[in-house]
Every structure is written in C-alpha cells, then in structure tokens.
Amino acid sequence: MPPVPGDSAHADSGGGTDMDAGSPSPGRTAPAGAQAATHAGAHAGAQKGDGVVSRIMQALIEHIRSNGLRAGDGLPGETAFAQTLGASRPSVREAFRSLGSLGIIDIGNGRRARVSSINDDVLGLMLDHAVHCNQISVQQVFDFRRTIEIRTAGLAALRRTASQSTDILALTAAMRADFDRPERMMEHDVAFHTAIARASCNPMFGLMVGSLEPVVRQVWPLTWGCRRTDEQRFDQIRIHEAVAQAISAQNAAAAERAMTDHFDNTIFVLASAGMT
User: Fold this and answer.
1) Can you give the C-alpha Rg of the chain in angstroms?
2) What is the pTM of this model?
3) Domain holding 79: CATH number?
4) Which end of the chain is more exposed for a tag (fewer CB within 10 A), N or C?
5) Cα gap 19→31, rounded to integer Å
6) Range of the domain at 103
7) What local confidence, expressed as pLDDT, does residue 222 receive?
8) Average pLDDT over the chain, rounded to whole?
9) Is residue 251's pLDDT more than 90?
10) CA-to-CA distance for 126 and 120, rounded, in angstroms?
11) Are the CB atoms for 52 and 7 separated by under 8 Å?
C-alpha cells in the first residue's frame, strides 16, 4: 500500500507520495470494479473533508477485499498498517474506530480487529433517528415492513426447517399465554417476525427486519393499547397464528395472505390513532 499523503509517521519530514487508496496489497491484484469503487469512495471522502482518515479507511477496506478476507478473519494491527501506509498511529486508530462504528470491522480490547459479520445495528440506529427527526414517518416504515414481510412469510413457508417452524409456532403459543402482559407480548412479537425473516433463508430480509426493530419497539405499545378489548387483542394473536400455521404447512400463498391481513390491521390501527 502506498503511503498516505499529509499524514507521515514522521510529519516533519514533509514527504510522502500521493496515495492511491485503491491499490491492492503487495502481491495481490484487486478486480477492476473494486478498484474503481474504492477510488471513487476515496475521492468522495476527500471532497467531503474526511481527508487522511477517510483514505486510510479506504485502504483498510481494499486490504480486506484484495486479500479475500471473510467475516471473522483477523486484520493486521494498527502499528503494521501505520508502517505500511506511512501514516500516524492516531490516524490509523481513528480509521479502525470509524470502520468499527460502521460495522465493517469488529474491534475489541485486547484482541486483533476482525472482519465483521453483517448486522442491523448501524442501519437500525439510522432509521430510528430518521423517524425521530421526522424524515421518515411511522406509516412509511410500516408500509415498507408490509411489503418485505409479506414476501418473507412466503419464502419462510417454502424454505423453513422443521425446527424453525416449531419455534415460530411456539412464539404464537407464548403470545396467547402472555396476552395480558404487554412487555412479554412485545418480546414474543418481535421474536416472531425475526424468526420468520431467518426462516426465509435470505439474509437481506433478516437485515431489514432487524434494522426496523427500534422503531417497532417504540410504536408497539401504542398499537397494542389501541386494541382496547381482549377480543381485539386475541384477533391480533389469531392472525399471527394463521401466519405460523401457513408456514408450518408450507403454504406460501396462505402465509402471504395472513401476513397481509396482519399489516393491514396494524396500519389501520396506527391511522386510527392519528399516527401518520
């Protein structure tokens, strides 16, 4: 990796050549598309004023890609990267922290940084912030959820394992048992939708459903409270049971219809409560 301009480990030397943030590690050649994307990212970062740290971040990402690293694989330490890039350790440390915050690498005290597995934490934080700042409405969130979770239910019916089907059915039984305990009901409900997303065997659905959880947790008490009678609350549980039973029977069309009913009912309740 070429050195980072303007951030030499010996800053008073005034040296350093221009950094090509997309250059592969020695002995490895990155695909042309990856190089182009990395170059564009580094250029955009420089334009935004991210400067040295942004360029180091791009170099770290390129190291992961050009060496074919996968989730859980270790990365060289900060000192090694600083020496290779000709950068200062504080700048490299900041780049590591930034990539950790973005969920690209996993950093922890006393161990080497590793390539992260995908998770919904960062996206969930962003979406929750967007709702609280009125950039996205709750109705828009549930309209989006409706679209993806109807498909998720259908895929789960086709792809679920016997164990996953048992877990989904068990969650509806737990809802029925705890219908008069809202906090437990919410946990069962959240776990129900997460389990269906997992059973779809498409990690994109799991990522999106999980990222919406912070908003769901904020809104759930309102939607449950608006169902004022036991009969109304049991109706909602029965809809969940219909989804679970269709998934168990591997009936994709029935699972999608039941999930459609679930979200149409919830969106109606939100509108009735004046939440837009």
Assistant:
1) 24
2) 0.74
3) 1.10.10.10
4) C
5) 19
6) 11-115
7) 87
8) 84
9) yes
10) 10
11) yes
